[in-house]
Amino acid sequence: MISSFRAAFSRYSVTGLMLLSLMVLSACGFRLRGDVELPAQLQQTYIESNSPFTGMARSLRNELEASGARVVDSREQATAVLRITDEQSENRILSVGSTGKASEYELYDAVTFQLTDREGQVLVKAQNLRMIRDLVFDENELLGKVSEAEQLHVQMRSSLARQILTRINARLKHP
């Protein structure tokens, strides 16, 4: 009887402690990373890019749509034009092994963006963002490492897209 009481008490105290922790976290303003709250200007956004369906434009499209915006097909339909003026994605050799083959790479992604309204008036001046990650490369796991590098680039572009929306949001809220 006492052991069942202890088990029940333990279960309830753990649950209570978890609830208390959640209340403390929410009280301090902590939120899980999720969708960015978009300003009204981005509710219908046109993405202008040399590669509108790949790379950074694709990541921006995903982030905008996940945040409730509609990505439109022309400037005329848009409340804002998000222009990607430059985009780079590279794998640079960081170190070479004793066999003369690359053993570590630096994955580099960079983007330059600008936000204007439909008529071309600048809302957010051109800004450059970049991200770098290291990847240890094992030639015995070639296919896996190539796939890992591609996935890291996708994650980096997604993170850059979130940063772009966060910067735009901050700039439009505090002009």
Q: Kindly give the count of domains.
A: 2
Helical content band: 40-55%
The share of residues in extended strands comes to 25-35%
Give me the number of helical elements: 3
Q: What's the CATH topology label of the largest domain?
A: Double Stranded RNA Binding Domain
Uncertain stretches: none
Number of strands: 5
Which CATH class of the largest domain applies here? Alpha Beta
For the record, the CATH architecture of the largest domain stands as 2-Layer Sandwich
Can you give the mean pLDDT?
84
**Quaternary assembly:** single chain
What Rg, in angstroms, do the CA atoms define? 23 Å
Structural class designation: alpha/beta
Distance between the termini: 66 Å
- The shape, in one word, is flat
> What would CATH call the homologous superfamily of the largest domain?
Lipoprotein like domain
Task: Give, in order, the helices and strands.
Answer: HEHEEEEH
Strand count, sense and closure of the main sheet? 5 strands, mixed
Description:
With 175 residues, the protein is of the alpha/beta class. It folds into two domains: 1-32; 36-173, Lipoprotein like domain (Double Stranded RNA Binding Domain), CATH 3.30.160.150. Helices cover 40% and strands 31% of the residues. It contains three helices and five strands; from the N terminus they run H-E-H-E-E-E-E-H. The chain has helices at 2-27, 55-66, 142-173, and strands at 44-48, 70-71, 80-96, 102-116, 122-136. It has a five-stranded mixed β-sheet with strand order 2-1-3-4-5, with helices on one face. Helix 2 packs across helix 3 (142-173). It is flat, with a radius of gyration of 23 Å. The mean pLDDT is 84.
